[in-house]
Amino acid sequence: MTVKIRLARLGCKHRPFYRVVVADEKSRRDGKQIEVLGFYDPLQGKEDANRVSLKFDRIKYWLSVGAQPTDTVENMLFRAGLIPPKPMVVVGSKNGQQSTSQHVSPITGEILN
């Protein structure tokens, strides 16, 4: 049984409101949940304190036991400072020269080994 940290949609038509939940990978988007970890309101202003609310201690627990966040939740957790960014991979350059793939740090832009 794989456990995911993902968003469950609530609210009315054209007024979305999301809960950050822990759920089994095979359950439906709005189906059975194991635990509610917070909420996300995309209609609030970007600097509004009520836009995102997360239970940091419970999220750290679920990540420690192997729960996998979805891409959207992973971006939210990165912005909150709970997880490090994914390394970016540079495949080629714009002028057409092919080079070997290199890992680049998304924070500093330096090439990693």
TrEMBL record:
It comes from the Eukaryota. Pfam families: Ribosomal_S16. It comes from Arabidopsis arenosa (Sand rock-cress). This is Ribosomal protein S16. GO terms for biological process: mitochondrial translation. GO terms for molecular function: structural constituent of ribosome. GO terms for cellular component: chloroplast; mitochondrion; small ribosomal subunit. It is found in: Plastid, Chloroplast. Belongs to the bacterial ribosomal protein bS16 family. Residues 94-105 have a biased composition (Polar residues). Keywords: Chloroplast, Plastid, Ribonucleoprotein, Ribosomal protein, Transit peptide. SUPFAM superfamilies: Ribosomal protein S16. Signal peptide: none annotated. Residues 91-113 are annotated as: Disordered. Transmembrane segments: none annotated.
